[in-house]
Amino acid sequence: MVKNSLSIICFIFLLGMVLFFPSSCSKDSATSTVVPGTSVTDSEGNVYNTVTIGSQTWMAENLRSIKLNDGTQIPYVVNRTTWSNLTTPAYSYYADDSVTYKTKAGALYNWYTVDTKKLCPTGWHVPSDADWVTLQTYLGTDSLAGGKLKEAATYHWYSPNLYATNSTGFTAIPCGYRFYNGSYNNYGFSGNWWTATSYSTPFSWYRYLSYTSGAIGKNYYDKVYGFSVRCIKN
User: Fold this and answer.
1) Whole-structure pTM value
2) Where are the domains of the chain?
3) CA 168 → CA 30, 151, 192, distances in Å?
4) Which of helix, strand or coil describes residue 41?
5) How many C-beta atoms surround the C-beta of residue 181 within 10 A?
6) What are phi and psi of 214, to 5 degrees?
7) What is the structure's pLDDT at 23?
């Protein structure tokens, strides 16, 4: 009789553990806020999937428009010396290869293009440093927050692509960047996105994700660098 009573007690205890622990994981599942079927179109006619994360709605793809939202053409600059001396808007594609990189990676813009405040579709804007802080706060300011934004695979990212879960649907891929001297670096290793916030006359803030980290990095670089852009809804 005692043995049977102990068995019943153990069963009740184990059942309670099963019911308790799933509810304790709700914070991470709350980041899975993909809204299927939503999109936004830029002035060139490119259509982008969008994703709602917390109180914010973001593009789920990198911007690839070659026009500002007033229809103005953004200069396409290939020559490295010309790029390195720019103080006006310009874009390029990684390795100057639009066939390979335009659709999947988007364009690389210098910060002077961001500063026009017309780069994103009407009703959207390049996120400020404060917008990124809001996103990071929602995801958790820890070493795993960036993993929730990274595409959870090594198709685009080099291995090991640590802590990548893409639980938000942001689907960040590692598009590298264009260096201040016009050369290209880091495709497969890092994704880098401009903010709309200037740090000083020559520098501006940006965010980055790395294949060896689950964190969201923050730094400032020369405005002539070519970085990716994600737009956020006003």
Assistant:
1) 0.85
2) 30-233
3) 9, 10, 18
4) strand
5) 10
6) -105, 5
7) 33
